Amino acid sequence: MEEMNKVLPDDTVKEAGNFIHELIDKDLAEGVYDRVQTRFPPEPNGYLHIGHVKAICIDFGTAEKYGGTCNLRLDDTNPTKEDVEYVDAIKEDIQWLGFNWDHVYFASDYFDFIYECAIRLIQMGKAYVCDLTAEEMREYRGTLTQPGRESPYRNRSVEENLDLFKRMTAGEFENGARVLRAKIDMASPNMNMRDPIIYRILKASHHRTGDKWCVYPMYDFAHPLSDTYEKVTHSLCTLEFEDHRPLYDWFLKELGFENPSRQIEFARMNVNYTLTSKRRCLKLVNEKLVSGWDDPRMATICGMRRRGYPAAALRDFCEKIGVSKAYSVVDYAMLEACVRDNLNWNAERAMAVLRPLRVVIDNYPEGQTEEIEVEVNPNQPEKGKRKTVFSRELYIEQDDFMIEPVKGYFRLSPGREVRLKGAYFVTCTSWETDADGHVTAVHCTYDPETKGGNAPDGRKVKGTIHWVSAENAVDAEVRLYDRLFTVENPSEGEGQAFYDHLNPDSLVILNGCKIEPDVAAAPVGTTFQFMRQGYFCIDSDTVPGHVVINRTVALKDSWAKKQ
C-alpha cells in the first residue's frame, strides 16, 4: 500500500494569530536582531508528549518562517534522571513531526563555559557559597507577602567563596552540604530573584561527561547561558517561565553579554482527558496499566504515532489552536477532528469485519469467485480503483443482521433486500442458530443484474453494508482504543482518585476479525478507513501470521453523545 503523507488542502487549515511573530517582526524592524535563531531544549528524562508538539511547532516553525535556524539542545543538567534512550526518542519524534534541526547540542557541551561564568559571578561579588540546609533555605526565603532574610553566609569574602566552590567541585563535600547562590535581592517581590541556587553538589555519573563533574548548574542558570553561547535570538518557552525572565535577563546583564537572547513566553498546550505528568505516566507504565510509553492510549508522541495519528494532523491541530498567553484547555475532540479530517483525505478505503457473521449466497455458483472494483479513496479519484474478491460465502458484521428489526433499522433482515458495498443486491431468505439461539449464519439470494450496486430497473434499497469474502479473508486482532481517562482533568487528586478515573473501556481487543489480504500485507503504520467503522492502522506488534490493527479514531465523536 502507498504510504499516506499528503496534507489537507490549503483552505482546510487557517493559521490563528501569533503574537510571537509580531514581536519578532518588531525586533527585526528596529534592528535589535538581523536574523532569527531559536532552539528546542527538552530535558532527556522522559518521552515527549502532546504538550511538546506545540513547542516543537513554535520553535521550528518560527525559524522556518524567517529563514533562520533552530537547534535541538538537550538540557542534560540533571544526570540522575537522564538517559540516552530518551535522547534517541526525542530525535525520532521531532523528525517524525516533519522538522529537522540545524545542530544538535547538549547543555553539557557548555559545562566548562557555565562553570567559568559562575566563577566570574563569584569574583564580581555576585555569587556566594551557602551552607544552609534545604529546609533552612525555605525558611529564609520568605513568602509572597513577606521579604526573605539574608543567609548568614551571604557576606563571605570573594576568596572564601572561590575556595569553597573549588572544593565543592573537587568533591570534598557531600550532596546537599553546600550550594552556590546568586546574590541578588532577598526582598524582591519576585521569589525567583531571592538569591536563587545556581550550582548544587550532585555526585552522579553523567551520560556524556562521566565522572568529570560533581557539581551541576541549575536550569535557570544554564538556560540563558546556553542560549547566549549558541547565539539564540529568541528563546521561546512556556508561560510558567515568565516569572523567571527577570532572572534570565539578570544573569546575561551581570555577565556583560552584548545583544543577549530574548525570552518570550507562550501558554502551554493543555488537552483534556490526557495526562502529561512524567511521574504519573511512569506510574502507569511501571504498574502495567498501559503497555509502555508508546501505548496508543498515552498522550506521548510515540503513543499517538503508534495509534496512527498523522504528523500533519498534529501540526494542523497546533495551528488551529494558535499562540497566545491566555491559559486554556483544548477539547480532545478537536484533536480527534483534525485526525479525522486528515485521514478522510488521505487514508485508503478498505473493508473489514470486526465481529463476523457468515453469509451464504445460495444462488451464487459454488467455487466461483469474481473481482469487484472499489474506490481507493473517493477524495482522490486520481488513485483509481482497486480490486477485491467476491465469493459465495462472505462475512458481514453481526450488527448488520436482525431477525426482528427495530424501527429505523435498514440493514439485513428476513425478506429485506440490501446492497453489498460495490457488489450486488442480496435478500435474506433464512438463518441458522446455535443451541443458545445465537445466529451463526445467514442465507441470502443475490440479483446478478445489480453488479456494482445498482439495479437496472431503478429500484432502490435503503441499506448498504460492507463485507469481506470468506474465500481469502485474513484473520486479525483489532484493538479498539479510546480515551484512557473518564474525566477531563485526570491530574486532579492524588492516590486512589487517579485510578478511579481510568476508563475501563479504553482498550477492547477483538480476535478473529476478518480483513482483506491487501490490508494484511500493508507495512506497519499504514492507515486505512475501514468502511463504516473508523480509521485504523497496522500496529508494530504485527508478526508473520498474526496481524494486529489499532483503531486510530472512530468516524464520529462518540464522547459527545456521552456528555
Tell me what the structure shows.
The chain has 563 residues and is of the alpha/beta class. Helix content is 27%, strand content 23%. The protein has helices spanning 19-29, 50-65, 84-96, 111-123, 134-141, 158-169, 219-230, 245-254, 278-286, 301-307, 311-321, 332-346, 496-500, 517-520, 559-562; strands at 37-40, 69-74, 104-106, 127-130, 179-182, 197-201, 215-217, 234-238, 262-266, 348-350, 352-353, 356-361, 369-375, 385-391, 393-397, 417-420, 425-433, 439-447, 464-465, 468-469, 474-481, 507-515, 527-530, 534-538, 547-554. A hairpin with a 3-residue loop joins strand 23 (527-530) and strand 24. The longest helix is centred in the first third of the chain and has 16 residues, at 50-65. The protein is elongated, with a radius of gyration of 31 Å. Mean pLDDT is 93; it is low at 1-15.
Rg over CA atoms, rounded to whole Å, is 31 Å
Uncertain residue ranges: 1-15
Shape: elongated
- Widest sheet: strand order? 10-23-24-25-21-22-11
SS-derived structural category: alpha/beta
Give the helix level as a range of percent.
25-40%
Q: What's the total count of β strands?
A: 25
Quote the beta fraction.
15-25%
Number of helices: 15
Largest sheet: 7 strands, mixed
Distance between the termini: 38 Å
Q: pLDDT average, as an integer? A: 93
Descriptive key words:
single chain, 25 strands, alpha/beta, seven-stranded mixed β-sheet, elongated, 563 residues
